[in-house]
Design a protein that fits this description.
Layout: H1 4-11, H2 16-28, H3 37-55, H4 59-64, H5 66-86, H6 93-111, H7 118-135, H8 143-163, H9 174-199, H10 205-222, H11 226-237
Helix pairs in contact: 2-3, 3-5, 3-10, 5-6, 6-8, 7-8, 8-9, 9-10
Organism: Pygocentrus nattereri
InterPro entries: TMEM86B-like
Pfam family, one: YhhN
């Protein structure tokens, strides 16, 4: 198992651009009332940095690990979703929703279907149902159907990430735990978006949404690099 200290020293430096770009976003805090290509760039910049983070591990690494390729593809669709949501008041919210729906499908595929962990699936399904029940009275067509599908997709993604963490059998890894925490934060971020948009204003909603979103994407990107770091660790200990 790759140790957290090893991950810190091998992956930490590669994440420095991401942390800097995230700081730039929060320091500039550009108003959402005036969407522009510049504000879209600033919002997407941390995600671009996560592209670079994965690409920095080499094309051969991405070629050898389909899960890493799927997470990279998910990050690309996430950036497109971020850009569309800059202009959500101009009618592009559904476009952003579609991009993130594709992202969750890609992440779910990257996390895989083993182990199944039906209990985790049941818990996530229950929480997803409760969330939709909360939102349903505030939804109107086409969001009545679109939000239901989206909740199902992100719930499925969360289930597959959580199922990978087998604490009881001591089969977990730090990167699987990273994927799990990232998925949970992604769900928190999107639930905050939904409640704030459809139900009632959430205090400090933008800060909550973006902080949990960027943290989620970083953790999910980090979950893709375990195979290479395990190889490096074995070579160093040999």
């Amino acid at each position: 198992r790759v140790s957290p200290r090893f991950l810190y020293y091998t992956e930490g430096p590669k994440l420095v651009p991401f942390f800097k770009a995230t700081c730039v976003y929060f320091v500039l805090w550009l108003p959402t009332s005036s969407p522009s290509w510049f504000s879209a760039l600033i919002k997407c910049l941390p995600i671009f940095c996560l592209w670079v983070f994965l690409l920095a591990h080499g094309i051969s690494f991405l070629g050898a690990h389909s899960s890493a390729r799927k997470i990279l593809a998910g990050l690309i669709f996430s950036a497109l979703g971020d850009a569309f949501l800059i202009w959500q008041e101009q009618g592009y919210f559904i476009h952003g929703l579609l991009m993130f729906a594709i992202t969750h499908i890609l992440y779910s595929s990257a996390f895989g279907m083993k182990p199944i962990n039906l209990l985790a699936g049941l818990v996530i399904a229950t929480i997803s149902g409760l969330c939709y029940t909360l939102l349903y009275p505030y939804l109107s067509a086409p969001f009545t159907y679109l939000v239901a599908v989206y909740i199902a997709l992100i719930g499925f993604m969360g289930w597959r990430a959580i199922a990978g963490v087998q604490l009881a059998n001591d089969l977990w890894t730090w990167t699987k735990l990273s994927a799990c925490l990232g998925a949970v934060l992604f769900m928190v971020s999107d639930l905050t978006i939904a409640v704030n948009k459809f139900c009632f204003p959430v205090p400090h909603s933008r800060a909550i949404i973006m902080a949990t979103y960027y943290a989620a994407q970083m953790l999910i990107a980090l979950s893709a690099v375990e195979c290479q770091d395990a190889d490096v660790a074995r070579k160093r200990s040999a």
